[in-house]
Amino acid sequence: xxxxxxxxxxISDIRKLDVYLRNGGYEGLKKAVLEHTSDQxxxxxxxxxxxxxxxxxxxxxxxxxxxxxxxxxxxxxVNADESEPGTFKDRELMxxxxxxxxxxxxxxxxxxxxxxxxxxxxxxxxxxxGDLDQCIEQAREKGLVGQNILGTDWSCECYTxxxxxxxxxGEETALLNSLQGLIGQPRVxxxxxxxxxxxxxxxxxxxxxxxxxxxxxxxxxxxxxxxxKIGTEKSPxxxxxxxxxxxxxxxxxxxxxxxxxxxxxxxxxxxRDGKKxxxxxxxxxxxxxxxxxxxxxxxxxxxxxxxxxxxxLGSASVIIMDEDTDMxxxxxxxxxxxKHESCGKCTPCREGTYWLxxxxxxxxxxxxxxxxIELLADVAANMQGVTICALGDFAANPILSTVKHFRAEYEAxxxxxxxxxxxxxxx
Amino acid sequence: xxxxxxxxTIFIDGEAYQVPKGANLVDVAxxxxxNDIPVFCYHPKMSPVGMCRMCLVELGxxxxxxTNDIKYNADGKPEVMWFPKLQTACTTTVTHGMAVRTDTPKxxxxxxxxxxxxxTSHPLDCPICDKGGExxxxxxxxxxxxxxxxxxxxxxxxxxxxxxxGELIYLDRERCIQCARCTRFCDEVVGDPVLGxxxxxxxxxxxxxxxxxxxxxxxxxxxxxxxxxxxTTADFRFGARPWExxxxxxxxxxxxxxxxxxxxxxLDRDSGGVTIIKRVMPRQNEYVxxxxxxxxxxxxxxxxxxxxxxxxxxxxxxxxTLETVSWNEALNTIAEVLKKxxxxxxxxxxxxxxxxxxxxxxQLVELTGGSKLGxxxxxxxGAEAVAQVGVGTGTNFKDMGKGTTIxxxxxxxxxxxxIWFLRTKQAxxxxxxxxxxxxxxxKLDKYAACILRHHxxxxxxxxxxxxxxxxxxxxxxxxxxxxxxxxxxxxAKYKGDEAGYDEAAKMITGAENVVxxxxxxxxxLAQHGDVMQSAANLLILxxxxxxxxxxxxxVWPGANTQGALDLGFSAEATADALSQSVVIVAGADPVGTxxxxxxxxxxxxxxxxxSMFDTxxxxxxxxxxxxxxxPERDGTFTNGERRVQRFYTAQGLIGDTRPDWKVFSQxxxxxxxxxxxxxxxxxxxxxxxxxxxxxxxxSYKNLARMEKQFPxxxxxxxxxxxxxxxxxxxxxxxxxxxxxxxxxxxxxxxVKSEKTAKRKGLVAVPVRRLYxxxxxxxxxxxxxxxxxxxxxxxxxxxxxxxxxVEGDDITLVFGDGKxxxxxxxxxxxxxxxxxxPVNLTDNPVPTAPMAVxxxx
Lengths: 427, 856
Ligand SMILES: Cc1cc2nc3c(=O)[nH]c(=O)nc-3n(C[C@H](O)[C@H](O)[C@H](O)COP(=O)(O)O)c2cc1C
Ligand code: SF4
Ligand code: SF4
Ligand code: FES
What we know:
Chain A is an alpha/beta fold.
């Protein structure tokens, strides 16, 4: 199959503008700008069924359509913060197929008549940002970015911006604050980014993930119908699956949505050392863990099917854990991650992430009773559904799901007062 | 609440309420349904942030999207679509058909959970915490807290407990619950973004971002609104427990705003069994200061029991030595002198002298046949302009927003009247337009929609030209029935075409409401009178008089300047008063604060000084009588909005002192036994109500009247407005101006523009700084770092000419007077002037502009 997104796998030099152009590059932007109105572009993307690849899976065309038409100042923000543990797809896209990302962002900008595009990259991506800047300049020389794009009266700038190393700045409203130079904490919604008062500099703004936007040129060139033929009805298109953990060939794999976990593991070279799959995190650290049962392994990777097994597809950062994995240890690692990354703005997450981490550390060190397992689950449950952003829910997921599926392992820690055996100690 | 709002129906726990559309759900539930939705981060004076999650409620909607009508089911109950998740009430504004549930298990559980989360990292400090006893967290823990903690005590984070955010306010990092009230107060209410959050997660902490730290005149307010004991003042921390304190209503003794305060007093070991002030808190008066006070008001109270307070009457003997005498002897001595004075008696009263004192002082002077009643400082005038067109009764800055234009003339409002600065800034944030007629940049500039910059001293022409532009603006008509004297305005031929003035004129004529605040920077007394009159003309011509939120507000130099004018005192009379053979000076130090005063008073034979401190004036006085500070006594002040307000006796007596009214009344009685001695301040006010028509309604009973205020803070729940104190002392009463009287015709008296003289040499322009070295303020040791050292500010050009650089010691020479100050050089100072702060230097500087020479 030809890749739609990871095209560098098929055409190795596609990151160069001339190669990209020779291979149909910027045809989507040209078609959008020269043949369609903004509303038509939105309609095509809506019809394609494209859903956001940043995590929530919200309809991209719908998101664009929320932007007020006649409002004078609007922005597109590309979420390139990519900080979910186990996620490394946006990085490959930006490194090896950067113009497709820029093109997708410019089409989005045309669709909402944005004044500027900001690509917000996590701080560690400083080298990618430098390369993207060059790509933007090249595109500008060709009249694809900047003043009077493609000779029309539409002008739109494109900038990159580096974050400063916070997971929370991937959350779209924290990202907007960070981009504005404010402390990286989420905003209370409403107003939503698409609304006046809610976006970048409080102007209506579309925030989309890198991968989401990388789909858009193909959709414009080939049409919504063609796109819908790929994947499933509710989850059309291809998706990059970031496979990591105990497989032989971890890495990015682009497949139509709807392949099963089993197929994905096979594609990634199968389980390492022929071990059995014990558990899967389909969406990095933030989604609930599921056990590696046959039912799970045969679940198609679509938004709807994964939801049916009580977890989420999210950004499809699939972490595979084999039979030797200590699930309490894994939960501890994730608890530590969220304790470290909670922005601290709202009480249940700020205090809850710290509390969970303390209790699970104690448990891991052998200083806990059975009641502490209930405490863990209860504290985690109390964090859900009451916070400003989803991080509070995310932080509870690994605890709740490991207690649910692997309770025996917790009990073993308590009963045997088992000291730490795996990897380093709690801290 | 402002009127003209649309009311909508909402349902709280099943009951229907009519509430103002768009109002905050937490406010509405409390005010209309008596339902206290618990909050920590929300504060009705600031925009919601939804951080603490304490206010979670079930929220739903019963409105049919098509018809926008509420859907009712068969038994008349609204059919509600509930949100699946709980929502924060504090970030919710009410809409038609909204439904709220606050009493379900889901809500109660969520509240319990949030309290539990907060307590996991809150220390067990209550027994030693300043907030203990009036702490929102304590109170809500009583209501929602679990009996037992599930959090392992050893896991508690230990953080710094004495982090100075500057020398006035301390942060206890363990106690902070990250509610952002303090940061929002600085950012939103004041506009000084000097606090911020640093780090994230459990490390999220408050830091100060400014240098000097916590650099704002309002820092103390954060300690009131902090919902826990995380912020404490250097003044009060560990000083007393709230339940030992007695709250006594009082007033700010310094500024013309008349900020309402509450003095928390206690019988104290350290004060030898005298009831003393332990702290100063704001007292809610939504008309005046809402729930805010400046740090000067909060921390200045130490003067009231300063070591160097005068405590006994003293008489100067022939050889010049002072002798402590009994009150009897002192009063008899004075009475003898007054009897022989043949009417050559003058009186000068300072700005902290109460209406009762002033009244009795006037009776005394008149009894001796004298008539010269002056005020100090003698810098501002305009009683007549105020009487005609002072702001309408019921004026409230809080109601000003879109449609209002606020004009600030010749004043640095932040320094001269910080509460008006804050309220003006907030009105502007709500959409009011701010216009400045000032000679130099001040902090208000960044909020101004229009700045009519002019030279110091040329303010009159600026106001006149604005009138000129109004007259020549499109469609301007004047209803002759409004006022007489329109012809004088027409004849004055003001310039109507100065650049920028047409835009300014539109901001006046196009506004629904116009308020003009007039200061006196750069103006002589006569010029200031002209500016007041011209400003009054502007208001009359454009019809912005006689109704709330319209009219004139003078930025008087002190707390009771308005009262002094109301009772017959004036700045014009001051020079004459000081030149009589017997001069009574009450609560003022003319000799020490203006070189000109020294010259006037030199001709007096006998100076009687009523003072709290040794001053240059007491140094030449023949009899010195110790005054009482405001907290030691009761009385009334009249603020710049003509609101007469009461202050009550709070502190035990310091020394053998008497209130001034009593002293004057006793003296009158000694001179003429037929004059009865008044027995109380209330009795004096009763006299005033009978004799001064404007004060007819100002009985103590009326002044103590209360009404339910919005927002409803300071109640038993405490959490809602922090600990800002409920008002039990009254809201005061404003006297109505002529413009409000039906059928009363006003008078326009055009003032001719001045020829702008060619400027020669430098002019010293006195400026007011909030923190100064007057003994009534500088007695507060804790403020010393914040009081500027003596300085004078020069423009870059003048400094270059004089070869002066920033930091040089220079001598200012005016006439006979000389002061040594440090030079400040900056781009904001206009050429040709030297800005000289008053009350910062050891030797007096002029209180009116005056030629100056600068020597190195
Ligand atoms: C804690 C948190 C972290 C997130 N991190 C990222 C991220 O790194 N990259 C990303 O694209 N979206 C991230 N998101 C999702 C964004 O908030 C947002 O939904 C997304 O950028 C929308 O783009 P899409 O519609 O194209 O998916 C995160 C959300 C949360 C709550
Ligand atoms: S849920 Fe956590 S990360 Fe999100 S706003 Fe609240 S404290 Fe910050
Ligand atoms: S110091 Fe007080 S007001 Fe400021 S964030 Fe902490 S708890 Fe809130
Ligand atoms: S979240 Fe509403 S009061 Fe704090």
